[in-house]
Amino acid sequence: MNEVILSAGAIGSPQLLMLSGVGPMAHLVAHGIKPVVLDHPMVGQGMGDNPMNAIFIPSPTPVEVSLIQVVGITKFDSYIEGASGVILSYSWTRNFFDGVLNYFNEMQTSRTTTSTSLSTQSITDFFKSINPLLNATIKAGLILQKVAGPVSRGHLELRNINPNDNPSVRFNYYQEPEDLEKCVEGIATIIKVINSKAFSKFKYPEATIHGLLDIIRSVPTNLRPRHVTSVLNLKQFCIDTVMTIWHYHGGCQVGRVVDKNYKVLGIDGLRVIDGSTFLNSPGTNPQATIMMLGRYMGQKILREREMVSVRSIFFDLNLAYYTFKEVAWKVKHLLYYIGHISLTVENLAHGKPPSYSSRRDEGAATDHAAIGVRMKLHAPFKLSPPLARDGHAPQPEIVSAAFAAVLCRRQAAAAETPPDHRDLLPPAALTRR
User: Fold this and answer.
1) Could you tell me the CATH number of the domain that includes residue 263?
2) 359 Cβ contact partners less than 8 Å away, ≥ 6 residues apart
3) Which of 162, 214, 217, 309 has the most crowded CB, counting CB atoms within 10 A?
């Protein structure tokens, strides 16, 4: 069977489903999407991301250049990770801040002058201005904590019906107190590491924890308002400085939008296979998990198609075999009864009683009473196998009522007695009549 496999990611897959008419009906109708193929309220729901908070530490000594790597996994389900040799330079920070300001301005203008959805041009320009390698020569390190399997969930909605525009996504970082507590414990763990003797050579002696926290607080990592007191309150620090680590998942979750075979519920021939189907994201980068999912499902789909093809062939062969067997059985019966009837008619034409080939009937009486009992008269015919289990021809079981009446009249005329047809019919025949 031909089918479509959608793999556009946690952001793209629910967006494309909605644009194709599969999603919450009220939301689709509000955007003028017609026709609504399927009212699927769970499309775009359950959006999640692993929230991340970091502490930046300038180093007085050279450090190894390293991308983000997992340092440790805590008992409270936070991943502690580190990177070194890369610095958020002043020029990069300024470009970042300018991009955020432009986005704020556009939001304000859009809200006051038009009711249409926001353009993503400012976001595009903003990302074009980012060059992480620019001025990345200052010695420093970054230690971050990341909440694995966050409880907080958000949703995805369309901003317009242009597939080239990004949808509106809300992850609701730290909406649930459980996630916020994990962040606080994660940041506290990082602070213990920074204050340890082993780490002292990678930190300026005059650097304080409050000063390091204030560096991150001053960088616009998100659009949330900043609180000066957040350096004294780790809960507020987590809320103010949260950022994404790009582990988006949800929106087309298993059991809600797709089944265990990743087929969209309520639609034939459509699957979604990507991170949007995850209920939870793995603690580390989900790329390898998604690649394994794709290969696993690809192999499974191929095997299913092969099995369907094999089952179809066996079904056709089996059907052909039993059809041939049934036809042969009926032809065999037909030939048997044609021969039997021909012999009977020939005997009657010569005034002889019907002949029986069964050895069990040898020596049997041939008067009309015996004929009525032995021939089990039925109308019109009752078929029976040509051979009994013992390999002998069975008792003849077909003679029409009219044929029996003719036979009875012939026998009665010879005996000069009036015929009684009812004596030749079995009780079942009398009941049906």
Assistant:
1) 3.50.50.60
2) 392
3) 217
